[in-house]
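Database export, one record per block. Field names are fixed; values are copied verbatim from the stored entry.
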Amino acid sequence: MENSAEIGAAVLGLVAAGGGGPAAVLADLVGSVERVVGLTAGAALLSDGAVGGVVASGAAEPRAALAAGFGQGPGGESARSGRPVLCPDLGRERSRWLVFAAKALAAGVDAAWAFPLSHGPDTVGALLVLGRAGAEPDPQVLGLFAEAAAVAILHSAASDRTATELRQLRTALTSRVVVEQAKGMLAVHGGVDVGTAFELLRGHARRNGRPLGEVATALICGDTDPAIIIEHR
């Protein structure tokens, strides 16, 4: 088995790579496989049943077969099924994956191991490792790398959603404050209550096909004369 300290460092690096987004995680994943296991590797993301965005590391010739391996090949099967797909003898799988097997064998690769990027019920992609028959890498190590990458990608997505929700909340709160200020201005200018002021403001926005917040901002900034709005009461 590979050095446990090196494996641990690689796993921690994968988790930390989540801050750079999915592409950074995939790059760190395949780089870790090449560095720790010594094999050519590719990783890709799963989206709506399609696998794409392949990132690769390792020898040039085997890398040429990786894209096919994520189409009709073990990488694609692993991503869509959420299960490992182990192929210690690609020669026996010619009829199963015609294009991938032909490209891999032509590149001097006759074995492949694919692992889903999964954590809990969520599968976000797959890791595909290419090598030689009889020199199988430790599947536990590859599975550990794949799961660490999945954790990083899922955490990154959750962080992005949280940031988006916070931006939307700030925008909504800001818009509400602006509308309240505009209502107050109209109420004072027209000598009406704030409820009537709001109806006048909203009516003006609808007649002109503009968002309420935009009309309120224009009123506060002096770009819209309150008399124009008041005259429709």
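Remark 1: The domain at 162-230 is CATH 1.10.10.10 (Arc Repressor Mutant, subunit A).
Remark 2: The chain has a mean pLDDT of 83.
End of record.
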